[in-house]
Amino acid sequence: MNDLRSQRSTKEDLTADSREASLSEIVSAFSYALDLTEAAVPGHAIRCCLLGMTIAALMRLPDSERTALYYALLLKDIGCSNNSAQMCELIGGDDRAMKHDVKLLDWTRPSIGAVTALLRNAMPGASAWQKAGRILRLGLAQHQHNELMIGLRCDRGASIVRKIGLSDQTAQAIRSLDEHWDGSGYPDRARGEQIPLLARVMAIAQHLDVFGSELGMEKAISVMRARKGRWFDPELVNLVAALDREGTLRILLKGGNDEQQRRVVEMEPSAAGEMNSAGVDRICEAFADVVDAKSSFTYTHSLGVTKVAQKISAQMGFAPQTQKMLYRAALLHDLGKLSVPNSILDKPGKLDAEEWAIVRGHAALSQEILSRIPAFRKLAVIAGQHHERLDGRGYPYGLTAQDLSLESRLVAVADVFGSLTETRPYRPDLPLEKAIAVVREDAGSKLDAECVEALLQVVEREGRIGA
């Protein structure tokens, strides 16, 4: 046990980070996770922020409004995981692929493009007649489906940003993102200047990046002009068209993701600085909720794993600062799971090789996203290794015992135990005795024996733990 305890500072020096991150550092990094929910080109929210804040500067918005807009642009998709399961059920297919395609459509009007997108994404493997029947039913109830999907996203997004402690202006802008100038949008069918100004700016910034990243800025400007007075505020369209003629938009979007994120962090209007510990925890807790909301089978998973990790780390006597790092790593360990379609997450049967490869990639994505926050780079490693095993048969890197810190081993044990005691689409939750038997059998070969022993001591004392 003494040898194992000495590993706490030998595997990439995984002691707790010495400073807290700033709000802009955290939110700009986490925006990459939100890009995953919509299958957007990576860095989508970052580019939207660059575009939207440039528009705001030209409009001479006051600092308070620019601050509200800044966070609304980065967090505009924070409610999107809340409708993923419903989208998957609605089309009988890949929710992320369908959401991606919808962004490029005028979904307020029937179109060949919409039918094509449904044919491509709905009910893969079904007959043409089955697909046609599904598409017909969707078309007949288009308004109800739009209202449901957008309402779920908008209300959830506004609720989460309020929980984080951001302004009501930010929440209202996120809630009104899909309103249209002519009243054809959702959730309130607001029109014209009834729509919050910040939401109108966000709608154009989002459109410019979606179309610009996929089809080029020329196409983005062309479609924006075509939707002037229908989707978009005419005055804002004129302003953006002038920016395009000057070449400002193309200059603005130069550079890779890292460079663009650095610029976004630097342009935060309020210069809020380093956050306190409680504020960082609130954001981590909120994003754990975002991840868990993606599937009814994981609705309390991150919270459950976190509670188990807390109990184990306290039982093992970790220092308070390290326990805090483990708390956050456990909350955020599945951040990359936002990249997995619900057609895979909620599949009741065995995954095929392609589906399994997608699932196996989520832990690396968690680490990649968290590593974008300088103060989170140590906990990022822990989060990214939660599916690694001592015998080298884990994923995504196939690491072995000598590569894994005690902290990484602890979160792995918490994740296994938490998963075993939760319902999955392919099995019911296991009784406590069976879950204990599984982790005990894997102790020393796949899972760390010291961490398992600490878990068993907690369970013996307290009974079932988790969410």
Automatic annotation (TrEMBL):
<protein>
    <submittedName>
        <fullName>HD domain-containing protein</fullName>
    </submittedName>
</protein>
<feature type="domain" description="HD-GYP">
    <location>
        <begin position="276"/>
        <end position="467"/>
    </location>
</feature>
<feature type="domain" description="HD">
    <location>
        <begin position="298"/>
        <end position="420"/>
    </location>
</feature>
<dbReference type="InterPro" id="IPR003607">
    <property type="entry name" value="HD/PDEase_dom"/>
</dbReference>
<dbReference type="Pfam" id="PF13487">
    <property type="entry name" value="HD_5"/>
</dbReference>
<dbReference type="InterPro" id="IPR052020">
    <property type="entry name" value="Cyclic_di-GMP/3'3'-cGAMP_PDE"/>
</dbReference>
<dbReference type="InterPro" id="IPR006675">
    <property type="entry name" value="HDIG_dom"/>
</dbReference>
<dbReference type="InterPro" id="IPR006674">
    <property type="entry name" value="HD_domain"/>
</dbReference>
<dbReference type="InterPro" id="IPR037522">
    <property type="entry name" value="HD_GYP_dom"/>
</dbReference>
